[in-house]
Amino acid sequence: MWIIILSSAYIGFVILVTIISLKLGRTKTDNPRMTAFVGFLLSLFPPLGLIYLAVLGLKEDSGTV
Predict the structure, then answer these.
(1) Is 63 within a domain?
(2) Is residue 46 part of a domain?
(3) pLDDT tens-place string over residues 1-47
(4) How much is the pTM?
(5) Based on the structure, what is the number of domains in the chain?
(6) Euclidean distance between CA atoms 15 and 19, whole angstroms
(7) Are 35 and 24 in contact (CB under 8 A)?
(8) Do the beta carbons of residue 53 and residue 20 sit within 8 Å?
């Protein structure tokens, strides 16, 4: 029972970090797909995924439209 709950939470966390990385990547960087891919890889280790989102969130917006 607990393994199902923990697995679901982990998979949900990975998906959530990837989606947030993509959305932030669209406004903060020039290459949102690479940003989402790096967010996906780092979300496999939850503390790194959260640090990545914090750094990406604090980054200044990209100048391109």
Answers:
(1) no
(2) yes
(3) 999 999 999 999 999 999 999 999 999 999 999 999 999 999 999 99
(4) 0.87
(5) 1
(6) 6
(7) yes
(8) yes
Asked whether residue 47 is domain-assigned, the answer is yes
pLDDT of residue 61: 87
65 has a pLDDT exceeding 80: no
The residue behind tokens 């959260």 is: 50
Inter-CA distances, 61 with 14, 21, 22, 56, 58, Å? 24, 14, 14, 10, 9
Alpha-helical segments (H) within 2-60 = 2-28, 32-43, 46-58
Residue 32 lies in a domain: yes
Q: CA 37 → CA 4, 5, 8, 25, 65, distances in Å?
A: 26, 25, 21, 10, 22
Q: Which domain holds residue 41?
A: 2-58
Q: How does DSSP classify residue 30?
A: S
